[in-house]
Amino acid sequence: MSCGEPHETDCSEVLDHLYEFLDNEMPDSDCTKFEVHFEECSPCLEKYGLEQAVKKLVKRCCGSDDVPTDLRAKVMGRIELIRSGQPAPEEDVTAGAPVTSTPQE
Questions:
Q1: How many CA atoms lie within 13 A of 3 on its CB side?
Q2: 0.70 exceeded by the pTM?
Q3: Helix (H) or strand (E) holding 37
Q4: Fewest 10 Å CB contacts: which of 23, 47, 70, 105?
Q5: What is d(CA 55, CA 49) in angstroms, rounded to the nearest whole number?
Q6: pLDDT tens, 69-100?
Q7: 2 within some domain
Q8: Residue 96 lies inside a defined structural domain of this protein
Q9: Could you tell me if residue 50 is inside a domain?
Q10: The dihedral of CA 97, 93, 74, 26: what is its sign?
């Protein structure tokens, strides 16, 4: 996605790191670059708003569910692999995780 206009920070960089921005997991200098980009680029601002809304909805609907310890460890391990630049295995990290919700009728 791109608005077709040149920006100091490229749209692809912003979208690749959008969740880091949403989760406040990036340095302040990078946050500032992203904020400037959102002021200039309405498609990226729209994507940011959509992802922010989804994140709030998930937190509201699922925020009180306990995550199984082994699933948390697998997910954190995968995140560390990705951050270190190593390829992550293709296995399903949720396989074998207990289902905590009941089906709706």
A1: 18
A2: no
A3: helix 28-40
A4: 105
A5: 10
A6: 899 899 888 888 888 887 766 766 555 544 44
A7: no
A8: no
A9: yes
A10: negative
Q: Look up residue 3 and give its two tokens.
A: 């608005």
* Distance, CA of 104 to CA of 71 (rounded, Å): 24
Structure tokens at 91: 């296995």
Specify the number of domains making up the chain: 1
Residues in the chain: 105
Amino acid letter, 88: A
Query: Residue 28 is encoded by which pair of tokens?
Result: 């302040």
CA angle in degrees (0–180, nearest 5) for 74-79-80:
100
In a domain, 37, yes or no: yes
CB-based burial of residue 48 (10 Å sphere; 0-12 exposed, 13-18 middle, 19+ buried)?
buried
Tell me which residue range forms the domain holding 45. 11-83
Nearest to 19, CA basis, from 48, 62, 60, 46: 48
